[in-house]
């Protein structure tokens, strides 16, 4: 991987005590490398529409924030899409639709796809499941949804789990021993959502007991 991919020592030095979604705070591993590479090599995409998919907290929003930090564009959540938003899309080269669940009007969504194609724009759609597996009612949209680049973010490997746990605690201004992180990794489900829930519960219990996070608190939550 490129020099930009951070090793864990750099990670320990560079994480700040707040929530960061910048380029330097995204840890690249084999689990998310393809999606990261796509974002990084824009506009050299094979297709104008990219669907980044993976479970909650896997980094889809972080990646799209990195993309928009480098390239001007507009990001909206799917539940914000309406005719006024569609008009705004016409003003931007790059569009990001976050948290897509197929809740908006399918005809409007199809119009967005056509706008991207006809005006040589670029569209990133973040979703939990790949959009080509969504059972759209509109046949034209169903067909169009298959003609995208698909970038799956897989379940985290050990290094990515370490990075996520470290960053999550750092965002909460909590220092934690690396040995405790290793202990957690060996016992927690390999899931972004489970990791996020675990961090929240550990922090909550620590505050409730008014004591620093230690092995006893971690075992209690596990």
Describe the structure.
This protein is α/β, with parallel strands linked by helices and 222 residues long. 45% of the residues lie in helices and 12% in strands. It contains 10 helices and 5 strands. The chain has helices spanning 8-14, 33-40, 60-70, 83-89, 106-118, 139-144, 158-171, 178-185, 192-209, 215-221, and strands at residues 49-53, 74-77, 94-100, 122-127, 149-152. It has a 5-stranded parallel beta sheet, sandwiched between helices. α7 (158-171) runs parallel beside α9. It is elongated. The two termini are 33 Å apart. Residues 1-20 have low confidence and may be disordered.
In summary, what is this structure?
With 222 residues, this protein is an alpha/beta fold.
Overall shape? elongated
Helical fraction: 40-55%
- Biggest sheet, strands in spatial order? 2-3-4-1-5
Uncertain runs: 1-20
CA radius of gyration is 19 Å
Q: Provide the structure class.
A: alpha/beta
Mean of all residue-level pLDDT scores: 88
Largest sheet: number of strands, sense, barrel closure = 5 strands, parallel
Number of helices: 10
* Spatial gap, N to C terminus: 33 Å
- Series of H and E elements: HHEHEHEHEHEHHHH
How large is the share of residues in beta strands? 5-15%
Oligomer: single chain
Strands, total number = 5
